[in-house]
Amino acid sequence: MRGALSQDIFVRPDVVLKLGQQLNISLPDDERPLFSKLENIGDGELVLTVPVDEDKCPARISPGTSFTCDFFDGCCYYKFAVGFQRRVIENIPVWYTDKPVKVQKIQHREFVRIKFDNPLVVRLLDDNMAEEEMIFTTSVDLSGGGICFLLDRPLEVGKKITVEISEIPGIGLFNHMATVVRYTELDEKTEERKYHIGAQFTNIDFKIQDKIINYIFDLQRKAPQKCIRY
């Protein structure tokens, strides 16, 4: 779970952009999740299917509007910004945009994490994996590889636990074993000591991990952010 949320790593568009790539679209002043597909890559332009929301309603914007595209290739998360040029009906309705000079590569999927303030059930396990104690607390952040949560005492590094999150889209109830990898005392001027406990998921199924990653990326995409041209 180490690492920053975002690193300034850029790659050439021709290296990572592929025909048929599914794209998430973020328009300014529009909080709807929008979806598109990359239909063509030209010398100075991209052709995308007209973005639609979950109800298949097409998006509408004015020429010159900048917007952000992002996608997950199974290992890494990428994003880039383009400017809308025109809408054309060919075999299907498409958008023509300019072509980005470079694409931002965010991180390896296991290290991408996001603030995640959510009710959490933590169960402490003994050496025989029997439950010692059940704790109701809140999470601090979440990644595909682990979770950080709040506690009123430190936990020994290497301690085995299970964590339970009531609802993750595509998964539902998430209950998984984890191992404590760090603890940090918070520097707060209060009478009660508080700690951030970092735990790494143990032998998590890749399909479950991918659903967590996609959920994290969706939260990142919906978070308020300025559209930056690269």
Q: Can you tell me the residue ranges where pLDDT is under 50 for at least 5 consecutive residues?
A: 1-6, 225-230
Report how far the terminal alpha carbons are from each other.
28 Å
Q: Cα-atom Rg, whole angstroms?
A: 21 Å
Number of helices: 2
Order of helices and strands: EHEEEEEEEEEEEEEEH
Largest β sheet strand count, sense and barrel closure: 6 strands, antiparallel, barrel
- Total beta strand runs: 15
Structure description:
The longest helix is centred in the C-terminal third of the chain and has 17 residues. The N terminus and C terminus are likely disordered. With 230 residues, the protein is mainly β. It has 2 helices and 15 strands. It is elongated.
Q: Which key phrases capture this entry?
A:
230 residues, mainly beta, six-stranded antiparallel barrel, 2 helices, 9% helix, 49% strand, disordered N terminus, disordered C terminus
Topology:
Layout: E1 9-11, H1 13-16, E2 22-26, E3 34-41, E4 45-49, E5 66-72, E6 76-89, E7 93-98, E8 103-108, E9 113-115, E10 119-125, E11 131-143, E12 146-151, E13 160-168, E14 172-185, E15 195-201, H2 206-222
Antiparallel strand pairs: 1-8, 2-3, 2-5, 3-4, 4-7, 5-6, 6-7, 6-8, 9-11, 10-11, 10-13, 11-12, 12-15, 13-14, 14-15
Structure summary:
With about 230 residues, the chain is mostly beta strands. The chain has helices at about 15, 205-220, and strands spanning about 10, 20-25, 35-40, 45-50, 65-70, 75-90, 95-100, 105-110, 115, 120-125, 130-145, 145-150, 160-170, 170-185, 195-200. It is built from two helices and 15 strands.
